[in-house]
């Protein structure tokens, strides 16, 4: 697939609205280096997850930090990232959401040999899309991601967009033992066949119960990225009205979230704009209440005591410049369907958006062994279970001719939530349970509630074998994964 450098038309309308707003970053020279060179080193590390005064937790980290360093790249500028493996096991890096050449996708066996201990691999690609993405391992992903290997990747717009500040919150979920160390038991049968490995501590940029310092009158672009293994999130911003600008890195029509809750499944990202209209000196909670009866404070917006930055609020935010995504030709589309099957069935009724199953009254056998036990498959797509992180010789579920539009229906026949992630593409989300999806949304990770059916479409312009899987890591490892081919 050939990506060309893309520059957008002037955004004078937005800049006029936001006159006087300070830029969040300096203008880069037009004579910047032709290739942006970076290095990431995966190695054991330590992090004080529960506070500066707490005992450090042994982790695995990129460049010694949890989360890894924020990689800020430039739209249309080539990048070369060398990944050094100082772990005692194989690893790779998947550049989640980036439309890149198949050989750079980071799936062991399928797109590249794994990076053995003591060796390195250099990834080279040119990001065609601006937006919020992230990077993480795709080898022993359940353990490596669960021990801390994750980082944010931001591709800056070809033309600057005006906000007072541009912030990133990378959200991670940890299952800690009583001594503060990461608990063992990765890949248990219960996690594999139910909700996945949901932890007991959530951090924002590596810190629990974090304060975010803000000033009255600011307009902030806040990039939210869920890097948890399994935890779904639904965020409410007390006293504020966030407006969604982009989903999974792709700009959409600006809109307020339904029921004032931002739902973020594992691997999803949402860019929001927040006008800080709280009182100087005030404190406003950001609450995650996805799971019924288990709400907690994720972070606090802590206002300084200075007078408001501006006398009057800014006008409504303008849409971000769109990325060069090919528009699906629905009239001539090839139709494909994938059906999600398996998992343990729960007793009782799902309660609300986040009701967790409380019992194991039965199971979906569908020809499978006891789900998830002793590494057996717990899930299937169209009756086929692909387990693990990826390997050579994975037979494609379907094949698409390069350039055709694929109308893809995803049907969830299970009793569980599944964020389905497609590698190499972004999907135009058309409908959910027969109702059109508004706001022109494109996603690489589409969340399906139990029994949901979602229709989406994409242009198969990127050749190779591409993975499509649930991003609840336990679900993927236990069979909820498939491959499709573009020739």
Automatic annotation (TrEMBL):
Keyword Cell cycle (UniProt): no
UniProt keyword annotations, A-Z: Metal-binding, Oxidoreductase
Domain Plastocyanin-like: residue ranges: 53-158, 196-288, 393-486
Protein name according to UniProt: Multicopper oxidase family protein
Organism: Mesorhizobium album
